[in-house]
Amino acid sequence: MSHAIFAAQAGGPEVLEYQERPLPEPGAGQVRVKVAHAGVNFIDVYFRTGTYPGRFPQVLGVEGSGVVEALGEGSARFAVGDRVAWAMGFGSYATHMVASQDALIAVPDGIGLDVAAAAMLQGMTAHYLSHGLRTTTEGDVALVHAAAGGTGLLLVQMLAAAGATVIGTCSTPEKAELAKGAGAQHTIAYREQDVAARCRELTDGRGVDVVYDSVGQSTFDGSLASLRPRGLLALFGQSSGVVPPFDLQRLNQGGSLFVTRPSLAHYVASRDELEMRSGAVLSAVADGSLSVRIGARFALEDAAQAQAALESRATTGKLLLDVGGA
Fold first, then answer.
1. What residues have CB less than 8 Å from 225, skipping those under 6 apart?
2. Which of 65, 173, 123, 62 is closest to 317 using CA atoms?
């Protein structure tokens, strides 16, 4: 038998239930993984609330790490006992899960399974934002919202390493120190300062080249107002809520601005691209050039508490469910 976190219907964290279920069996091209750690991400919240469409009941979680336990027919990419991690493995809030072998990545020696689980989704998100959606170049000025969050800290590091000047928004002095430690040259206390006005001050009135916004509804207007003419707003999340419809003429009035709503799935759509992005992230973790901060850990049965903590936006770094080992 195995155990998993089910959402029987859309709703708040209280709809999550810890249940026993039969041990899943892998089909053709699949493997069964004994899960060690599962990442807690806003995409899990979006599926739980019904913001992203899904069928209920469902086992939540898309990211994690573990050890291959059984192989389905024709599954030759991995062997039993291999350490693997994933960012698109639905049903990760469980002691055992079945996934397509093509969705899994081998974890290099020297990287703990906890760090691998913490790095996959947010690390590859930061990578495609800084090295896919647009190419970061020396002299760029980038505004990163939620700079002390899991994705934010990784994105700040990647942008700074590529030569960008990074401005990070944070809610507390402690979070600001984390963002600066990751490479942000400037931080903005968004509860006390006007973000757009401060960005103008820091850029001598020009505005920033790009805004990376995972917050959504509460930051959208300020993000647009922070951009230089022909600047880009990458809206890759909506932790504060969905951005309502808006008049596209605002993009013209702001200086022929660009807005995109990207998703990691479209930047790891092929096996080659998945291996490229995961390889870039995990190799940087292995050589110490990319630091992964695990902000809090929860037991699998405490998944509701973990999601509530994430939604509070009071956390820093990555939240993990410790399921079955290190």
1. 196, 254
2. 123
Domain-embedded: residue 23: yes
Q: What's the Cα-to-Cα distance from 268 to each of 271, 302, 303, rounded to whole Å? A: 7, 30, 27
**Single residue among 244, 261, 278 that ends a domain in this structure:** 261
Q: Does 163 lie in the same domain as 230?
A: yes
- Strand 294-299 relative to strand 318-322: parallel, antiparallel, unpaired? parallel
Mean pLDDT (10-residue bins), the chain, 326 residues: 94 96 96 98 93 90 98 96 96 97 97 97 98 96 96 97 97 95 96 96 98 93 97 93 93 97 96 98 97 96 96 89 81
161, 182 in Cβ contact below 8 A? Answer: no
Instruction: Please check whether residues 147 and 238 belong to one and the same domain.
Output: yes
**Best CA proximity match to 111, nearest among 103, 119, 121:** 119
Please give the structure tokens belonging to residue 66.
């573990």
Residue 129 placed within a domain: no
**What domain range is 270 assigned to?**
2-122+265-322
| Secondary structure string (H, E, C) spanning 75-89 | CCCCCCCCEEEECCC
Contact 234, 133 (CB under 8 A): yes
Are 226 and 316 in the same domain? no
205: how many CB neighbours lie within 10 A of its CB?
9
